[in-house]
């Protein structure tokens, strides 16, 4: 999944950008007692390519958050972003964790996060429509997943923030929950077509891929994590170049990060870059 930084200039010196992961691939694979989320690391600006973006955030020892698309806005020179979708998810989780309610945490987090991020994106569209829409396909600005356990089973939510612009130029953004899965499920965000093909297993190369993954598996291997990681690896190797901002570019790439969430042990990183932070304590 790629990250796009769209440049505008403030006071002729401060460079800011919509932070995008519109080329991203995120793969979630789950069993009854385990959820694994893996993602690539690629991001792009109009002038450079980066392979250091962590697209997964572990929330406490309870949830996993990942996002594709417009995920922030701010300077591209290493300083803090004005807003960031992952930071917002962390702050909301810590706030909601202390509130007691019957509604499942993934639902509460998704609804609250969607409301806040759609407001940020609306402001970005008004301030810098061209930069915010750079690399956007269809009218979807951001897709996200929220995964945890509820009543002893996986509880996985996907949501999307979309935009519209009226004939008289009025900008509107909206958030909707697109799916709720209450059972083991494979879920994909971003450049998902190859990964979806592999998991469906109805083409010759997907059958061959499944056989190769099975041959790689040993008794000590994780049968949930390995397919998620290898689906991203295969997609990176085989995904065609895409026309992004008028240039043919490889849309996914870089190191693969992967995290596991189990009912028994909580969050455990399988592999991660330094930019993938350990979960913040909730106590």
Describe this structure in words.
The chain has 283 residues and is α+β, with helices and mostly antiparallel strands. The protein has a single domain (4-191, 223-271), classed as Aminohydrolase, N-terminal nucleophile (Ntn) domain (Glutamine Phosphoribosylpyrophosphate, subunit 1, domain 1). It is 27% helix and 37% strand. It has six helices and 18 strands. Strands 2, 3, 8, 9, 10, 11, 12 and 13 form an eight-stranded antiparallel β-sheet that branches. Strands 14-4-5-17-18 form a five-stranded antiparallel β-sheet, covered by helices on one side. A hairpin with a 5-residue loop joins strand 12 and strand 13. The longest helix is centred in the middle third of the chain and has 23 residues, at 105-127. It starts with a strand and ends in a 12-residue tail after the last strand.
CATH superfamily: Aminohydrolase, N-terminal nucleophile (Ntn) domain
| CATH topology (level 3) name | Glutamine Phosphoribosylpyrophosphate, subunit 1, domain 1
Q: What is the helix tally?
A: 6
Helix/strand class = alpha+beta
Q: For the terminal residues, how far apart are their CA atoms?
A: 33 Å
Q: Which quaternary structure do these chains form? A: single chain
- DSSP helix fraction: 25-40%
Q: Which properties best describe this structure?
A:
alpha+beta, eight-stranded antiparallel sheet, five-stranded antiparallel sheet, Glutamine Phosphoribosylpyrophosphate, subunit 1, domain 1, disordered N terminus, 283 residues, 37% strand
